[in-house]
Amino acid sequence: MARPIRHLPVIQRWDCHQCGNCCTDYWVPVTPEERRRIEAQGWSQLPEFQGIPLFVPYGPWWRRKWRLNQRHGDRCIFLDENGLCRIHAKFGPEAKPFACRLYPYVLVPVGNHYRVSLRFACPSATANKGRPLLDQEDELKAYANGFERWHREMNPKAQALAEDQLLPIGQGDWLPWSDIFIFAEELLRILQMPTLPLVGRWLRILSIARVCWEARFDKVRGSRLREFLQLVCDAAESESAALTQRLGPPSWVGRVLFRNFLAICLRKDQGVRRGLASENRIRLLWAMWRMLRGRGKLPPLQKGLPEVTFADLEKPLPPLPPAAWDLLERYYLVKLRSLQFFGPAFMDYPLLIGLEMLALTLPMILWLARGYLERGSLAAVEKAVQVIDENFVYSPFLASFRQRLALRILASRQETEKLILWYARSSNVVPA
Ligand code: SF4
Fold first, then answer.
1. Does residue 2 lie in a domain region?
2. Residue with the nearest Cα to atom 7 of ligand 1?
3. Highest mean pLDDT among 13-27, 135-149, 360-374, 417-431
4. What pLDDT is recorded for position 61?
5. Rounded Cα–Cα distance for residues 253 and 263 (Å)
6. Last residue of some domain: 127, 154, 181?
7. Could you tell me which of 387, 367, 374, 199 has the C-alpha nearest to residue 294?
8. Burial of 45 (0-12, 13-18, 19+ CB in 10 A)
9. Which of ligand 1's atoms lies nearest the C-alpha of 20?
10. Rounded to 5 degrees, what angle do the CA atoms 366, 370, 374 make?
11. What's the Cα-to-Cα distance from 226 to each of 130, 182, 219, 254, rounded to whole Å?
12. Ligand 1 atom nearest residue 125's Cα
């Protein structure tokens, strides 16, 4: 039986508004059963599909998979001239590949249930447009029922996720889901503190994370873990308030590592917004080097990036409207509540490393939003969230040990806190 869905992000709304972004941004993987089903729909008989395969292989020959074909500059082969899906129009939504139906939802297997996250690369998710997620529970249940089968067919060699799995914390200890939930509750409680601005909440969360990096949890479980976190939270209250006075700007180490993660999150190698990856490798490597140096113009790692210099992106941010902070708060609540930021949903990242990466997205978003300000402050933050979230958790470049080490270095030097304070500066934020 499929895992049930729990902990829906009730603050989030979504409905597809048919902008067509996802049909032109990604490869759509299909299982052998989906290939057979779509082939049986008779598309190859139509004149517009003559001589064009519906599916193309990808991946190494020993792990060959299939995806929907594309045409006209990376548009899905089934998109019509109005940007709508022909399979959906002719046979209904159930006839589409599972990956298309699920997007932008993300089902996160958490112990004995799923939690729901969203990909904020979808403009409707970022703008919170559509029905509340609570009203979509039945659809989500149906996705949960189909997800495990689809996942097995896509990855026949992958092991089923055990409900009683132990999860790495980051400093050598492993905890069961029941203890992870205690952590998550505490982080969520802080992230929802109405008396603190978002920046202050993140500083407090990171203060707790710093103590947890040094702690051992082999004997601190269950109610003792709760008590421990309570004590650490109390200490973090004064520590995070002092941070704003004590911490200076990020060091060169922090800035280089920050731009390394920006390069990973800005780089787009698929879809109509593909950047330098569609040209030659030398130009791409040169652009990555320029990102690390952080001088001159921002390289076009994807289409649609602002045409600005790195110096422009260092200027203070004008005050952001409350709606922009609300969007950021909603974004982090969805990511934290769903536990999408570590473990099985994020390349088996340990909890503290994944939390560091999630925290780092805040200065990344505020950095990039500076480049889009001519759209207006709220639209600038929306666009920055869409761009940064697209690769967060998904970029294959985040899988390496080197990137985990880079996050550990950022944590040990409190560079993430410095980056948050630096890129939030001059906004209407009183940090702590
Ligand atoms: S990006 Fe979002 S709104 Fe646009 S077509 Fe895809 S699911 Fe619909």
1. no
2. 16
3. 360-374
4. 87
5. 15
6. 154
7. 367
8. exposed
9. 5
10. 135
11. 37, 7, 12, 32
12. 2
d(CA 92, ligand 1 centre) in Å: 16
**287-305 mean pLDDT:** 95
**For tokens 């560079």, what's the residue?**
415
Residue 133 CA to residue 124 CA, distance in Å, equals 13
Q: How far does the centroid of ligand 1 lie from the alpha carbon of residue 21, in Å?
A: 6
Q: Are residues 204 and 97 in the same domain?
A: no
Minimum-distance ligand 1 atom for the alpha carbon of 25: 1
Token pair listed for 17: 């508004």
Which atom of ligand 1 sits closest to the CA of residue 21?
A: 1
Domain end (from 102, 128, 154): 154
CB atoms within 10 A of CB 86: 18
How far does residue 18's CA lie from ligand 1's centre (Å)? 5
**233 is a domain residue:** yes
43: DSSP letter: G
Tally of residues, the chain: 432
Domain tally, the chain: 2
Cα of 20 from ligand 1 centre, angstroms: 6
Structural domain that includes position 258: 165-432
The residue among 199 and 8 whose pLDDT is bigger is 199
**Per-residue pLDDT tens digits for 9-46:** 889 999 999 999 999 999 999 999 999 999 999 999 99
Question: Pocket residues for ligand 1 (CB within 6 Å)?
Answer: 16-22, 103-104, 122-124
